[in-house]
Amino acid sequence: MTQQSLVSRRDFLQGSLAVSALAVASPVLAACGAESPGSSNTITVGAIADKTGAFATYGAPTIQGMNLAVEEINAAGGVLGKDIKLKFLDGKTDVAVWTSNARELLRDPSITTLMNGGASNQREAYRAMVTPAKKMLFYNHQYEGGLCDKNVFSTGIVPSQQVKPLVEHMIEQYGPKMYVLAADYNYGHIATDLTKKFAKAAGGQVIASEFFPLDVSDFGTTVAKIQRTRPDFIISHLVGNDHLNFHRQMASTGLNKTLWTGAPTFGLGNEQFKLGPADSQGILSALNYYEEIDTPESKDFVAKAKAKYPDVQYVNSEIATSYTAWMLWAAAVEKAGSTDLDKVTKVLEAGLTVKGPEGALTMDGKTHQLSHNISFAKVNGSGRFEIIKTIENLVAEPSCDLIANPNQHTQLVS
């Protein structure tokens, strides 16, 4: 491996990490015991993701991005001259397991930071434990927004960066009336409330909304309602494999050929391949990263991800978000010169910028939310995403000021 293929420690100290070729090494992602707090050779970081269960479709790429970043950082000399050591636990798509795992990691004195993905209900089951444990949480997954917690930094896309521009685009293209479908848990309900807010501000109207448990797979009644109410378009906050049947049933009626569905979660779990081109017709996705993005940073990332994981069908936004989060954390620790919670927080709140697959992204100090580039994309006849439009450097709408109010540890959605 050449020196040019590594991420240098100078890049970390400057707080801007260039995307570089992956150092191919043995996998580092495995459950491991806690190290001694006095260890001088490693920095232990806790991590939870859904390796198994219904949400493994999202957990698998999160784990891949994590593994990719950690191996690359360690190959470049580590953080503060120390290798990262992962203590990884499988959330098993079970809120109770997430809670137990988080409790175990938060009690580990060698761990100062948790790097977690997971659904919103999983996060909220343990988030209140993070501050009393005096730890930092990086939440690395698309979510409903509004986290205002001094100890939490969010690197996934939120509705004001994703749903808002999507709703505005679809109103402009198709008309003001929309029908909203959503998963029946906190993400779906909050995202729907925000969709109504964004629609009203853009001159649109939500004419109906429905919520579905995660195990629902029969949408025949809903498709019939959509045919009767005749919206101009649909916004879907559905998630998981069972909910994909909505798109299949839309296609079986031919309705997807004339009625577009804006789907902010479509592509997070490589749904374009699960459905295929015919059933994916009429779906407009809105994500921060697609493999098809034609930039040097994206091409380099795809090349090294596929070199590491040759069986990966698609390098999606979950892989990119997870990878970028680890690079941001490493840059912050290097610049802080320590894993100390207060010192790392201060660096991040100063507006640290990291370069990754999307390009240069910046942490907003007040909201603890990372900026993002958002692209709209449709599935073409070959089953690949075709980028329609990209909006760069979208900053999440402010919901709080954690610099002015450092004792805030809530979730606010306006």
Summarize the model shown.
With 414 residues, the chain is of the alpha/beta class.
Task: Give an overview in words.
By secondary structure, this protein is α/β, with parallel strands linked by helices. The chain folds into two domains: 3-157 and 293-371, 3-Layer(aba) Sandwich (Rossmann fold), CATH 3.40.50; 163-263, Response regulator (Rossmann fold, 3-Layer(aba) Sandwich), CATH 3.40.50. It is built from 13 helices and 17 strands. The strands form four sheets. It has a seven-stranded mixed β-sheet, with helices on both faces. Strands 2-1-3-4-6 form a five-stranded parallel β-sheet, sandwiched between helices. Strand 12 (353-356) and strand 13 form a beta hairpin. The longest helix has 20 residues, at 56-75. It is globular, with a radius of gyration of 21 Å. The N and C termini lie far apart (50 Å).
